[in-house]
Amino acid sequence: MDIGWYLVVSALIFCIGAAGVLTRPNPLVILLCLELMLNAANLALVAFSRMWGTAAGQVFALIVMIVAACEVTVGLGLIVAIYRRQLAINVDDLNELRG
Amino acid sequence: MSPTTFGWLVLLCPLVGCIVVAAGFRQERGIVAGWIGTLAIFLSFAFAIGALISLLGRAEDSREVTSSLWNYAVTFGVDAKLSILVDPLSVLMILIVSGVSALIHLYSVAYLKSDRGYSRFFAYLNFFVFSMLLLVLAGNFLILIVGWAFVGAASYMLISFWYRRTTATKAGFKAFVINVIGDVGLVLGTFFIFRHTGTVDFVKTFREVPHVFGHNSTDLVAGTLLLLVGAFAKSAQVPLHTWLPDAMEGPTPVSALIHAATMVTAGVYLIARMHPLFEQAPTAADVAAIGGGLTLVIAATIAIVQTDLKRVIAYSTMSQLGYMIMGVSVGAYSAAMFHLMTHAFFKALLFMSAGSLISGMAGEQSLDKMSGFRKAMPFTFVAFIIGGLALSGMPPFSGWLSKDDIIAFLDHRGGGFEVLGIFGYLGAFLTGIYTFRMIFRAFFGEPCEEARELEHGHLAHAETPFNPQTGEIEDTDVGFPGPEHHIAERDLAMKVPMAILALLAILGGVLQIPGVDDSITRFLAPTFAGSKLFADDPSTGASWIGLVIGALIAVSGIGTAYVIWIARRGTAARLQQRFSAVYTFLFHKWYFDEVYDVTIVRPVLWMGRFADSVLERRVIAGGVTGGTVGLVRACSAAVRRAQTGFVRYYAAAVLLGISGIALYFLISAT
Predict the structure, then answer these.
(1) Best CA proximity match to B93, nearest among B341, B322, B327
(2) Cβ contacts of A23 on chain B, cutoff 8 Å
(3) Are A98 and B642 in contact (CB < 8 Å)?
(4) A42 in a domain, yes or no?
């Protein structure tokens, strides 16, 4: 199959993820959407790896998964911390870092 | 043990003493601190004797021993090490320094008993002794400079010891500033010499000097003249002398130890140590000799009219240092070092007696107020007389043999040096007058009230402590020796060191009697083995003629004083009236302070105020830092708007940015 289809699917998933991050106020959903974006990138990496017949892209994909796992851990930890302090689970309300 | 091991131990004792007293006795005023400090110095003296014995056990040509503990920086062209040089000259110095210091520590144990800064005093004093020993044991210029600066700092701390006294803190500043001028001279001089020899080590430098410098070469003369700035500042020679009389604001044991017996002799030691340089640069040596000659006369003339007891002795110290500087500069090394030693004995004794006398007056130092203490303080009187006779150069006291040894050498070198010899005799005559003026005014005549009270067993007691300079009432929170005072007659710890010093002041001269004994010269010979002038001693006959003249001059000086202040009372007042212009000139100390005030102090203060009000406040604070702060503040105010705090806003910005970059590359690729 042509590499183009993989990339189209990957781009679509990425856009869905990006749209989710931008539109949804719930941090949990934002994390999920981020995950979507990362997996879209993974898909593209694996597709390229297959196209060239080398393992480099797959290794990259594995590393991205590790990073994603770390990021989710930190993100979920933050959400739990927000919940414990009984703040709203809404990223728009958490704007104390404004200049 | 080798001499250098003893040398390190000599250094270690006061350092440990200083740390123990400083760290262990912060609150308590216990007398233990004083005994620990004293013990440390006595141990140091014992090790100094060990170094002497160990050095004498070696062959004459191997009596210069160096030892280095570690390297600071030893690379191409630099050899900075922590090293000491133990040779006859430094051993003589450590013996004098640690010996006199030990006695003065013992004296201070009693003298400062009621002072609230008791342990602080001993910590400082031990630190001073450590620094001084480091200075004299230094094996290279680097350590010399370190010791040199340390003694300056110690001197500052001890002059300003009673730090609530404004006169004391100001005197401390003055001493420190003038000493720093000397430090700068010393450092620059070292660079001048180091540039050519390529080593800071003393032994190597002295070996190199004749090869790399021509006779009187410009760089060497410049370098040695800069060293002289250091020596003159430390030894209070004209024109860098004005700090020494003011330094009398410190406690009396400090005056005895630092500003008479040890620290101020550092300049003499420096010239003696650097004799290969000065002999190669006779111009610089002549400048030093003339400076010393002028100082000894100027100081002696001032001493005649001053009324503050301690300041008279301070001026006499300056005058005696003038003899020593003159001596080492013309090549009378052994005579000058001999005089340094005997001077340490009799001047420390004089200061101790003065301290006892001042205690008897409940802190009052003015000669105008004291009189007739002869019966009230017999021990102090005898000690003062012995010190005074030694200082005036009466036979057979030690000062007679040592001072006239220097003058005999000057006459022996002939030429212009004979003029300096005449200066020496003039100074000796004046010394007899001012020394016995002190004695006749303080101990003879009608007893003053305090003396009468003391004869009945009541020590004068100041209800409130006061500053003898200004008469202001003092703040006793930081410790001031009043209202309780201690006199030698009642305190054994004061009596013993005075008795020992009195014996040394009488007998110290036997070490060097022309034609009979020349221990000092023989002992110092290995250090000065390369010197042309050292071996060139005046003949025994010439020396004895000098001694006889010196004795006659001393007698005539004392006789003059007797006539003026005892036989024909009122002569002093008549003379003062007839020569009122001269009197005023001398009373204002040749107007050195006033001239410096107008030419240096005020302009510098004015520049300081200008720098503060215009440069600092307007240019730096207003323009440079103020402008930068304003710029950063304006920029940040502009950028702050972008920080909304909305996470999704940031995400959108990132996404847009990355899309923009991707788009740019896509477009540029096609």
Answers:
(1) B341
(2) 648
(3) no
(4) yes
CB B116 within 8 A of CB B478: yes
Q: What is the pLDDT of residues A52-67, one digit of tens each?
A: 988 899 999 999 999 9
* B163 CB-contact burial (10 Å; exposed 0-12 / middle 13-18 / buried 19+): middle
Most B CBs within 10 Å, among A7, A14, A16, A22, to test the B interface: A22
Rounded Cα–Cα distance for residues B197 and B215 (Å): 15
Torsion of CA B362, B368, B374, B375, to 10 degrees: -60
CA distances from B494 to B96, B253, B266, B308, B383 (A): 19, 11, 26, 22, 12
Which pLDDT belongs to residue A68? Answer: 93
Cα dihedral B316→B318→B319→B320 (10° resolution) = 90
B418: number of CA atoms within 13 Å, CB side?
Answer: 4
Distance CA A30, CA B624 (A): 48
Selecting from B645, B651, B655 the residue whose C-beta is nearest the C-beta of A98 gives B645
CB contact under 8 A, B645 and A95: yes
Structure tokens at A99: 């200049």
**CATH number of the domain that A32 lies in?**
1.10.287.3510
What pLDDT score was predicted for residue B663? 94
A4 in reach of chain B (CB within 8 A):
no
Q: What is the span of the domain harbouring residue A58?
A: 3-84
Q: Is residue A99 part of a domain?
A: no
CA distance A67 to B571: 105
A vs B: CB pairs below 8 A: 37
Nearest one of B421, B399, B424, B404 to B548, comparing CA atoms: B404
User: What local confidence, expressed as pLDDT, does residue B162 receive?
Assistant: 86
The token pair that represents B501 in the structure block = 């010093």
> From CA B553, how far away is CA B324, in angstroms rounded?
19
Structure tokens at B317: 């110290």
Is residue B500 within 8 Å of residue B341, measured between CB atoms? no
Closest-CA residue in chain B for A30? Answer: B648
B600–chain A nearest CA distance, Å:
55
Q: Which two tokens stand for residue B294?
A: 């002028």
CA distance B419 to B410: 9
User: Taking a C-beta distance cutoff of 8 angstroms, is the pair B424, B407 a contact?
Assistant: yes
pLDDT along chain B (670 residues), means of 10: 90 93 75 89 95 90 86 81 91 94 93 83 93 93 93 93 86 93 94 88 89 88 93 91 90 89 92 92 92 93 92 93 93 91 94 90 84 90 94 89 89 85 92 93 88 82 70 64 74 91 91 84 88 81 89 93 88 87 88 90 92 88 89 90 83 91 92
User: What is the bridge-based pairing of β-strands B517-518 and B512-513?
Assistant: antiparallel
Is residue A58 in a domain?
yes
Domains: count for chain A? 1
Asked if the Cβ–Cβ distance from B651 to A22 is below 8 Å, we say yes
Residue A30, chain B, CB below 8 Å: the answer is: yes
The answer to the question of residue A19 being in a domain is yes
pLDDT value for A36 = 94
